[in-house]
Design a protein that fits this description.
- The chain has 990 residues and is mainly β.
- Among the domains are: 53-262, Leucine-rich repeat, LRR (right-handed beta-alpha superhelix) (Alpha-Beta Horseshoe), CATH 3.80.10; 679-954, Ribonuclease Inhibitor (Leucine-rich repeat, LRR (right-handed beta-alpha superhelix), Alpha-Beta Horseshoe), CATH 3.80.10.10.
- It has eight helices and 64 strands.
- The strands form eleven sheets. The chain has a 32-stranded mixed beta sheet, with helices on one face. A seven-stranded parallel beta sheet has the order 41-43-45-47-49-51-56, with no helix packed on it.
- 48% of the residues are buried.
- Mean pLDDT is 84; it is low at 1-33, 758-765, 911-935 and 946-990.
- It binds 2-acetamido-2-deoxy-beta-D-glucopyranose (NAG) (2 copies).
- One 2-acetamido-2-deoxy-beta-D-glucopyranose (NAG) is lined by residues 147, 168-169, 171, 193, 197.
- Residues 1-22 form the signal peptide.
- Its main location: membrane.
- InterPro entries: Leu-rich_rpt, Leu-rich_rpt_typical-subtyp, LRR_dom_sf, LRR_N_plant-typ, LRR_R13L4/SHOC2-like, RLP23-like.
Length: 990
């Protein structure tokens, strides 16, 4: 949902000021009733002026929305008639000279330069040319000839260039408006001349005039009779003079959008007749002073996006004239002051995007005239206040992203058009009265705890509905044919995931549908044929994931950008896709056949996820270079074979490539190094051969490298560069034929594993694209869990290879490591005591090697260790006692005949000499997992997530005992509010 109505409201307010100006003007200009013939010269000049322009309706298009009539006034000007009677022309009663020209909104289109006959009308006192199009004409210095002018309006008419210095000759000017042209510039000299000479000026509107070269302090030379000043969007920089706020006659001050303007409000003795104050988007910062409550005449106060922090002053409740109050997008904290409920005139109240907590003030008779309320994106709790249901004028309620609890009660009035309460903790049923709000256009109740059954037929009455989002509640529909929705002609957005819907709701009347989410329902079979005509041109987003769709004959929606069909039963070949597709995800279906090179025509694609299907054949060579925008290519778990394409192009933008679980063969293509942005590279479970691709070490942001279960072999060797794999956090080379010693030189240089980065509060999850997230799945003791890959997740798995020699001491430097698996190799020697430095380690598997000696006491420091497997080595001596070591069971140590002490049955006795172990474990049992859980299997993946409802951790079976320690305690972090908010916003943007 955008903020359109609000923008309009605000505009309308500004415009009402301008309109007020205009009425002033017209009351003066229409005072001539008995007019003599107009001066012949002036008549000729006017006709020439008329002829210099063509008539072009669109140039005055905006007038209508401002409530000003727009029509070609000059069309009725006829030579030989009395020009004083012409529309827009005012003459002097006595002399017949033209003294006023009002041609605003007259469809004039053409250049207006120094040769214009306009300048042959030297007696002009009022001139209004606003809302025409002068094709970027320079504002002529000849405007300086109109020395009698008291009113000049050249706004919205496409002038450009410098404002000429001659403008300051107009010393009688009372009102000057140069707003909203093609950013003409006002330089320091012209401005100071203007301030010096225009001593009578009361209204100055310079919206969008480039004033970047003007020092704000010079504004202090402004005449004290000034009543209105608008400098919005004029790029003023530096400190705005505080004393300006005390000007005795100032009623309107608009400094909106000067982001480099530093504004400090007076903190004491501030009184002023200000009625309109707008500082939106300026740099104000600090606290909003209490003194703001002294401005008893204020009607409109706009302080959004000003960097204010601290509490909202309760003195605001004194501003009894206020109709418009905006404090949004700041850092206000604390409560909403209950005094605000005194603002009986208030029509618009915006405090969204702050850090307010506490409950919404409950005063029963609050805000009797409120139309628009937005308190979204705060931390407000408690129940919805009673007044919300009883204000007859209320049309917009926006309080999403808060912590509100309790029920939604029945609304007493039917004027509401907009209700947005998503992402709170509201419960109970959807009140019946909502379905009586005949003018409702937008209804968002998503992500609450609402329950009960929604009869979608009740929607029938909401004929104006455009946006309906009831997702992520415990709502469900009556399991009947949903036919009502077919009469909602304006419907654009429909989100009903997890709604227990058994078939497609009939949407045949909603021909302009833009987004449809029916994911996680029980829809079986085909997409009905009539759906092909819905949104044929308009549908951008379709999410039918987690259903039971079986066929996908065609994708008829020409402009579709996001297509999510994950987790269905779709079989058959891939259909042809429309070329605008950005996001394509059909993972976890039963697709067969080959991927044709047609896919390479889809040059807008950012995400392709075809994983977990039965696709086969070779993949087209062009897959490596068809789209610069491609971020994610996921072909995991299909039956593809052949060589990996070698054509990854220069400036390839891939961040995530996953070919895991196919039968790709041959070596890895070196052209992958063209993809400088790769973060995740997963080629595990294929038939890739060759040696370790150490050329990957130059990829600057590679974080996850998975090559497990291939035919890679040989000595890993040494790095060729001084900072190899600078960002690598997850390395899995398990189940290959790598041999010789462990790659100590690489281990020594893994920068990302050597420093603790990211405090738990700042955890972020890897996310290559919107809604596309990476996760890691662990299989421990036959329990499988999936965890989203957070940016602090780290692990190294070199198990099931032929490494020999000793575990290098340097391993102790990888202090941010959380998982280490070196099991099933031929490693000998002692466990290095330096491993006691790996204080973040949560699982450690050194089983099935030939390690000797004692378990170093230093391992006691590993207080986060939840899983330890040292079984089947030749370790001896006492098992360390205390801390984590009290939690490990027998199976962590079995097959080490020399170990003694808890939990082994064999006690350690000082007298008793440990018999040296004679039994050597024959560690050649690759993947013959005879020891139950002992191999910690780690899998990685990335894919579409099912929005907020899907947990961050997914168990295939029940919660393992160590879960609390490993996941809830450390890795498992809820998304932060801002991430959630950003997500909601993204989802809304579609
Ligand atoms: C100020 O106005 C006077 C009289 O209109 C004029 O002569 C003079 O040039 C103006 N000064 C500037 C700086 O334009
Ligand atoms: C619905 O909107 C129309 C048009 O704006 C208005 O005339 C009518 O009064 C509104 N209905 C209700 C119940 O507010």
């Amino acid at each position: 949902m955008g903020y359109l109505p609000r923008v309009c409201q605000f505009l309308c307010l500004v415009l009402s000021f301008l309109k007020f100006q205009a009425t002033l003007f017209s009351s003066l200009s229409s005072s001539s009733t008995t007019t003599p013939m107009c001066s012949r010269q002036d008549g000729v000049a006017l006709i020439q002026f008329k002829n210099a322009f063509s008539i072009n309706k669109p140039v005055s298009e905006k007038c209508k929305s401002l409530g000003t009539k727009s029509y070609p006034k000059t069309n009725l000007w006829k030579e030989g008639t009395d020009c004083c009677l012409w529309d827009g022309v005012t003459c002097d009663h006595i002399t017949g000279q033209v003294i006023g020209l009002d041609l605003r909104c007259s469809w004039l289109y053409g250049t207006l330069d120094s040769n214009s006959s306009l300048f042959l009308l030297p007696h002009l006192q009022k001139l209004n040319l606003a809302h025409n199009h002068f094709k970027k004409s320079i504002i002529s210095s000849k405007f300086g000839l109109f020395t009698r002018l008291s009113y000049l309006n050249l706004s919205m008419s496409n002038f450009s260039g410098q404002v000429p210095p001659e403008i300051s000759r107009l010393s009688k000017l009372v009102s000057l408006d140069l707003s909203l042209n093609d950013s003409p510039a006002l330089n320091e000299n012209t401005f100071s001349g203007l301030l010096r000479n225009l001593t009578e000026v009361r209204e100055l509107f310079l919206v969008g005039v480039d004033m970047s070269s003007i020092r704000p302090i010079s504004l202090m030379n402004m005449s004290s009779s000034l009543t209105s000043l608008s400098l919005s969007g004029s790029d003023l920089r530096g400190d705005f003079p505080m004393s300006f706020f005390r000007l005795p006659n100032l009623r309107l001050l608009d400094l909106k959008g000067n982001k480099n303007l530093i504004v400090h409000l007076p903190e004491s003795n501030w009184s002023s007749p200000l009625q309109y104050l707008n500082l939106l988007g300026t740099s104000s910062a600090g606290k909003l002073p209490n003194s703001i409550g002294n401005l008893g005449s204020l009607k409109h106060l706009q302080l959004g996006l000003c960097n204010f922090s601290g509490p909202i002053p309760s003195s605001l409740g004194n501003l009894s004239q206020l109709t418009y109050l905006e404090l949004s997008r700041n850092h206000f904290s604390g409560q909403i002051p209950p005094s605000l409920t005194n603002l009986k005139q208030l029509r618009s109240l915006y405090i969204f995007d702050n850090q307010l907590d506490g409950s919404i003030p409950v005063q029963a008779s609050a805000f009797p005239n409120l139309i628009d309320l937005d308190l979204s994106n705060n931390l407000l709790n408690g129940a919805l206040p009673a007044w919300l249901y009883t204000i007859p004028s209320l049309r917009f309620i926006t309080i999403h992203n808060n912590q509100l609890t309790g029920h939604i009660n029945e609304f007493q009035y039917k004027s509401l058009t907009w209700i947005s309460l998503g992402n709170n903790k509201l419960q109970g049923q959807i009140p019946k009265s909502i379905f009586e709000l005949v003018n409702l256009t937008d209804l968002d109740l998503s992500s609450n705890n609402l329950s009960g059954i929604v009869e979608l037929d009740a929607l029938l009455k909401l004929q104006n509905l455009e946006w309906l989002d009831l997702s992520y509640n415990s709502l469900s529909s009556i399991n009947s044919n949903i036919s009502a929705t077919h009469t909602l002609p304006n419907l654009r957005i429909l989100y009903l995931p997890s709604f227990n819907i058994g078939e497609f709701p009939i949407l045949s009347g909603s021909t302009n549908l833009e987004a449809l989410d029916l994911s996680n329902n029980r829809i079986y079979g085909q997409i009905p044929k009539w759906m092909w005509d819905i949104g044929r041109d308009s549908l951008l987003y379709l999410n039918l994931s987690y259903n039971f769709l079986t066929d996908l004959e065609q994708i008829p929606w020409k402009n579709i950008q996001t297509l999510d069909l994950n987790f269905n039963l779709i079989h058959g070949n891939l259909p042809t896709f429309p070329t605008n597709l950005i996001f394509l995800s059909i993972s976890n279906n039963s697709l067969t056949g080959e991927v044709s090179s047609h896919i390479c025509n889809l040059s807008s694609l950012k995400v392709v996820d075809l994983s977990h299907n039965e696709l086969s054949g070779k993949i087209p060579q062009c897959i490596g270079n068809f789209s610069k925008s491609l971020l994610v290519l996921n072909l995991e778990r299909n039956n593809f074979h052949g060589k990996i394409p070698t054509t990854f192009a220069k400036r390839c933008g891939l961040k995530n490539i996953n070919l895991n679980g196919n039968q790709f063969e041959g070596p890895l293509p070196q052209s992958l190094t063209n993809c400088r942005d790769i973060e995740v590279l997963d080629f595990g479970d294929n038939k890739i051969d060759g040696t370790f691709p150490n050329w990957l070490e130059t990829l600057p942001v590679l974080q996850v490298l998975i090559l497990r279960s291939n035919n890679l072999h040989g000595f890993i060797g040494n790095p060729n560069t001084s900072h190899p794999f600078p960002k690598l956090r997850i390395l899995d080379l398990s189940n290959n034929e790598f041999g010789s010693t462990l790659p100590a030189k690489f281990i020594k240089t893994f920068e990302a594993l050597k420093y603790l980065n990211g405090s738990p509060g700042s955890i972020q999850y890897m996310q290559e694209a919107k809604r596309y997230e990476c996760f890691v799945s662990l299989t421990v003791k036959a329990e499988e869990i999936e965890i989203k890959i957070s940016t602090i997740f780290t692990s190294i798995d070199l198990s099931l290879n032929k490494f020999d020699g000793e575990i290098p001491e340097v391993i102790g430097e990888l202090i941010s490591l959380r998982g280490l698996n070196l099991s099933h190799n031929n490693l000998g020697g002692h466990i290095p005591p330096s491993m006691g430095s790996l204080i973040n380690l949560e699982w450690l598997d050194l089983s099935s090697n030939k390690l000797t000696g004692e378990i170093p006491q230093e391992l006691e420091n590993l207080t986060f260790l939840s899983i330890l497997n040292l079984s089947h080595n030749q370790l001896e001596g006492p098992i360390p006692l205390g801390k984590q070591f009290n939690t490990f069971e027998n199976e962590s140590y079995e097959g080490n005949l020399g170990l003694c002490g808890f939990p082994m049955s064999k006690p350690c006795s000082n007298e008793e000499t440990q018999p040296p172990s004679s039994m050597t474990f024959q560690g050649d049992s690759k993947l013959t997992n005879t020891f139950g859980w002992k191999v910690v299997l780690i899998g990685y993946g990335c894919g579409m997530t099912l929005g907020l409802a899907m947990g961050y951790v997914v168990f295939k079976t029940g919660k393992p005992r160590w879960f609390v320690m490993l996941v809830e305690g450390r890795l498992h972090q809820r998304a932060t509010r801002s991430q959630k908010r950003a997500r909601t916003r993204n989802a809304r943007r579609v």
